[in-house]
Amino acid sequence: MRDPVTAYVALGxxxxxARAAVMQAFEALASWPGIEVTGRSALYRxxxxxxxxxxxxxxxxxxxxxxxxxDVLDALQAIEHQAGRLxxxxxxxxxxxxxxxxxxxxxxxxxxxTLPHPRWRERAFVLVPLADVWPQRVAMEDMARVAGQAxxxxxxx
Length: 157
Hints:
This protein is an alpha+beta fold. 28% of the residues lie in helices and 29% in strands. It has a single domain, classed as Alpha-Beta Plaits, CATH 3.30.70.
């Protein structure tokens, strides 16, 4: 049996009841076979970044898993599908968006999955909630880089 790996997942939604969608996604992750949610950030409201539509509710989950990174990605996409996620065009508004940010110390570049997530340092909606669950990973320079991106803490997860 594989040793457990700690991974980090970004959660976001900006259609319908976005807060409920993110909370339901936390629960769906926690109930997925082979995944244990070991940390949850607060919930944050952000304006769409490089996209249009209503404000997002964002969060980050820390998980422990014995699944492979591609299997975790499959789980995330299945949870998105269950939440009604459609992909009509790049950066379309979404009922749920789950991104695998880190999978242990894995570095991977494939057509389907890149780890760590290639744009994690560019987005306040990732960095700020990530700092809730993995503060030593988020450097001051990273936070300074996204200081102009509005983000508001709306509740504990």
